[in-house]
Design brief:
The chain is mainly β. The protein contains no helices and 11 strands. The strands form 2 sheets. It has a 9-stranded antiparallel beta sheet with strand order 4-3-2-1-11-10-9-6-5, with no helix packed on it. Strand 7 (about 90) and strand 8 (about 95-100) form a beta hairpin. Residues about 90-100 have low confidence and may be disordered. Belongs to the OXR1 family. InterPro entries: TLDc_dom (IPR006571). This is Oxidation resistance protein 1.
Length: about 150
């Protein structure tokens, strides 16, 4: 396995929660904090996905592509990672706040997250209960160098 470089992009992010949901994102930009914090990336190669179905051998892949409604693709800070945004609810915890619903949101420790419908991808919640909250079991990130 090669060393992770912060500037690697695109990035394939795969998450499995403790309930067994498998979901993630393809990000057209590197997952690194920007100064000042802001959303980055492009809609042509950014998407959310989830696998549906109860049994691993019969799961189907659902993808959620950019709607064109906004450009809230990736916002990485020292406190959270947010992919997609725009909606009516908010994410707040003791460490950070995301002002609008995020398609995929992870805390700084990559232990807890939330997935909600967002305007960027018009996705269904990728995991979690009614509020979209989930506890992470595994996270894998694959960065690609296109140079």
């Amino acid at each position: 396995m090669s060393e992770w470089k912060e500037e690697m992009s695109p990035v394939l992010l795969i998450i499995r929660d403790v309930v067994g949901h498998v979901f993630g994102a393809v990000c057209s930009t590197a997952l690194q904090p920007l100064t000042p914090p802001h959303y980055a990336g492009t809609g042509d190669s950014c998407l959310l996905f989830r696998f549906t179905g109860e049994h691993p051998h019969t799961r189907e892949l659902r993808t959620f592509h950019w709607t064109g409604d906004n450009q809230f693709f990736v916002n990485a800070t020292k406190d959270f990672l947010s992919i997609g945004a725009g909606g009516l609810s908010s994410i707040t915890n003791s460490r950070s706040t995301c002002p609008t619903a995020a398609g995929l949101w992870l805390d700084a420790d990559l232990n807890n997250g939330r997935s909600q419908n967002c305007a960027t991808f018009n996705n269904e919640p990728l995991a979690g209960g009614l509020e979209g909250d989930f506890v992470v079991q595994f996270v894998e990130a694959f960065g690609f160098s296109m140079s």
